[in-house]
């Protein structure tokens, strides 16, 4: 979470709570995706089943489509670098665009207006990603070389790079149908996005708690997160690391999010952070 805006030395209790939230969200999503796959007569959970769950939030769906484009592009680059046989480069067109093509084919089938299909082609600035980048730029301004190297290393961490460990951690044994490899790739992306959104929301709560003790800070934009050195006004039995997100920040952030958003699948009693 350091690379997403948390303190350099986050609390263990906070990490455990984030892990539990992410796991619960993904497993609940998988159970609903499993129902959709069963209705389609599929033997596995496919990307289509996850895309269907995400159809109501166009901004998050657009972010996922951009990610799939990036993964296809990365695969194409790696294949070009590794392949010394020039004949291999003259293979079937679009062979390295399978993720993007699969998503587009499904959106064509599901979307009668073409609105969802056009999401991947839009060149609009994603305000959430823009806000995250601006926050991280402020966070790194006063870092020394060692701190910045640690920050850059943490930026490279990804659930997708540890696919087998991620699958073991997720533990799909309770599911009648299992996700295929491409669905697991999307789930690893959603896991990262869930952590990122938890950090986003928790930092806002943390700033608000700081504002209660600092009468001047309320005039600063909500997107401008402080990285100060004093402890925050949050109930705790031990002094937290400087600027670290605490469990109470996360619980309050989730409570507010659940209050403001209504899940498309309200029967689960859970509002998804990623769809």
UniProtKB/TrEMBL annotation:
Keyword Nucleotide-binding tagged: no
One record GO biological process: regulation of transcription by RNA polymerase II
InterPro entries in the cross-refs: Histone-fold (IPR009072), TFIID_TAF13 (IPR003195)
Source superkingdom: Eukaryota
Keyword Membrane: no
Keywords assigned: Activator, Nucleus, Transcription, Transcription regulation
CDD domains: HFD_TAF13
Gene source species: Astatotilapia calliptera (Eastern happy)
Protein name (record): SPT3 homolog, SAGA and STAGA complex component
Subcellular location: Nucleus
Family named by the database record: Belongs to the SPT3 family.
């Amino acid at each position: 979470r350091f690379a997403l805006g948390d303190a350099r030395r986050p609390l263990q209790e906070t990490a455990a709570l984030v892990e539990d939230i992410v796991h619960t969200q993904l497993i609940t999503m998988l159970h609903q995706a499993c129902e959709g796959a069963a209705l389609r007569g599929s033997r596995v959970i496919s990307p289509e089943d996850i895309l269907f769950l995400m159809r109501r939030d166009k901004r998050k769906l657009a972010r996922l489509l951009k990610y799939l484009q990036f993964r296809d592009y990365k695969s194409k680059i790696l294949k070009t670098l590794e392949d010394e046989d020039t004949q291999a480069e003259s293979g079937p067109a679009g062979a390295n665009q399978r993720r993007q093509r699969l998503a587009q084919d499904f959106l064509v089938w599901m979307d009668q207006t073409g609105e969802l299909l056009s999401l991947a082609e839009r060149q609009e600035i994603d305000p959430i990603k823009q806000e995250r980048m601006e926050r991280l730029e402020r966070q790194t301004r006063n870092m020394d070389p060692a701190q910045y190297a640690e920050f850059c290393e943490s930026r490279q961490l990804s659930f997708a790079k540890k696919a087998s460990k991620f699958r073991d951690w997720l533990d799909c044994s309770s599911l009648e149908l299992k996700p295929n490899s491409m669905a697991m790739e999307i789930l690893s992306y959603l896991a990262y996005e869930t952590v990122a959104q938890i950090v986003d929301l928790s930092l806002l709560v943390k700033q608000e708690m700081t504002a209660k003790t600092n009468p001047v800070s309320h005039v600063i934009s909500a997107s401008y997160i402080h990285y100060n050195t004093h402890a925050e006004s949050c109930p705790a039995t031990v002094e937290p690391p400087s600027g670290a997100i605490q469990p109470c920040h996360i619980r309050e952030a989730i409570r507010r999010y659940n209050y403001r958003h209504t899940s498309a699948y309200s029967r689960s009693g859970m509002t998804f952070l990623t769809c």
